[in-house]
Design a protein that fits this description.
The protein has helices at 4-7, 23-38, 59-73, 86-95, 127-139, 158-166, 188-196, 228-237, 264-278, 293-300, 312-322, 345-357, 363-367, 386-396, 437-451, and strands at 13-16, 49-54, 77-83, 100-103, 112-118, 152-154, 177-182, 201-206, 241-245, 252-255, 261-262, 283-287, 304-308, 326-328, 334-336, 342-343, 374-375, 379-382, 402-403, 408-411, 415-421, 427-434. By secondary structure, the protein is α/β, with parallel strands linked by helices. It has 4 domains: 4-156, Alpha-D-Glucose-1,6-Bisphosphate, Chain A, domain 3; 178-259, Alpha-D-Glucose-1,6-Bisphosphate, subunit A, domain 3 (Alpha-D-Glucose-1,6-Bisphosphate, Chain A, domain 3, 3-Layer(aba) Sandwich); 264-370, Alpha-D-Glucose-1,6-Bisphosphate, subunit A, domain 3 (Alpha-D-Glucose-1,6-Bisphosphate, Chain A, domain 3, 3-Layer(aba) Sandwich), CATH 3.40.120; 374-451, 2-Layer Sandwich (TATA-Binding Protein), CATH 3.30.310. α10 links the parallel β12 (283-287) and β13 (304-308). α2 crosses α3 and α9 (264-278) crosses α12 (345-357). It is globular. The chain starts with a helix and ends with a helix.
Length: 454
Amino acid sequence: MAATDRIFKAYDIRGTFPEEIDAPLCRAIGSAFARFVAAGPAGTAPAGTVLVARDMRESGVELAAAFTDGVLDQGLDVVDLGLASTDLVYYAAGALDAPAAMFTASHNPAQYNGIKLCLAGAAPVGEESGLAEIQAMVDGPPAAPAPAPGTRREREVLADYVAHAHSFIDVGALRPLKVIADVANGMGGLVVPAAFAGLPIDLEVMFPELDGTFPNHPADPIQIENLAALRARVVETGADVGLAFDGDADRVFLVDERGEPVSGSLTTTLIAIGVLEKHPGETIIHNLICSKALPEIVREHGGTPVRTRVGHSFIKAVMAETGAAFGGEHSAHYYFRDNYRADSGLIASLIVLERLSRSDEPLSSILAPLQRYAGSGEINTRVADPQGAIDRVAAAYADHPQDRLDGLTVELEDWWFNLRPSNTEPLLRLNLEAATPEACDAHVAEVRSLLTEA
């Protein structure tokens, strides 16, 4: 078996196949997850059924089958959802009130695979919410099989998920729009055509074949080079918007009609406005590296912004505590209370199309008033001592308001920045925002110079 420390991450399980993650290990993980959910973790009811699904990676067939065997061996039943996007699985975990395992490595290259786990109701399973316990069981002695094995059956939920996604918008308000969706040979090739069928949308899907070798480009739309084909096609066809999905289609990035990428912060702001129009006065969650324009605009539209740490388990926890209607991250994860607080690239896309339909202006014009500051994007710097570097930067700006909610955030007169350590590498991640691009560049250089001081 592969060493579990290498593949159990903060929010999921992920590694190269078969060197780090293989069938025997997945069977052990299935057995451990079955025991975990059968015990009723975190005050939940004991589960007797586990949902299992996978993305288009060829290794997923073998790994999901082994995981299923581990679950069945412990006497729990399995409902096999087959090929699915991650947000479809979260929906199923909520609608069917059952824990779930999604086999995917998301945006990672073809040689990777992994597992995203959740509890009934799509409650997250992360390092602090069960994943460490599951890892300990995997590392421990094998469990004895149940007196009687569980049973396996298949279930199709795509049509139900599409209907659910449509419930977030007024379908009748949509107008004819030209949409290019680059699904990068990922699971968007399954869910996007199904969701757009019957809508007044002229949809063109780029690279729709489900192919876990990613023959056209990596399914990682946060890297701007992977948007090149979509940007060119949007301009070439005169499309109203481009949608770029990652490998398991739980994230979506926008490209406007000029072929320009739209940040996750800006998309979160646009969706938040739409949510607040339908749910006036509600709370909107945003992580601390989103643009400061986001909370400003939320307040202007009558909402209450709440700032959180980066990461889906933190977003979902704060959404549960506050009852927030919506939450967004700069990394293009968009969470909806009425979607069991889970993220969905598909629901986000439909809300954007509704916003476009309600305006006569192109997307770039709709977004222009929302883009009030210049952002650096996330800049990684390798340092020998990340915490020491953070403390040095904090001391350099000791006269300015700062907090340690997640790394270091410093607020200055007309700019701010956040500096966070990587969970897995000796890296610091800098996100900075200022009044102008020139000021942003200058301040980035200023902060980075402090990181490399002797």
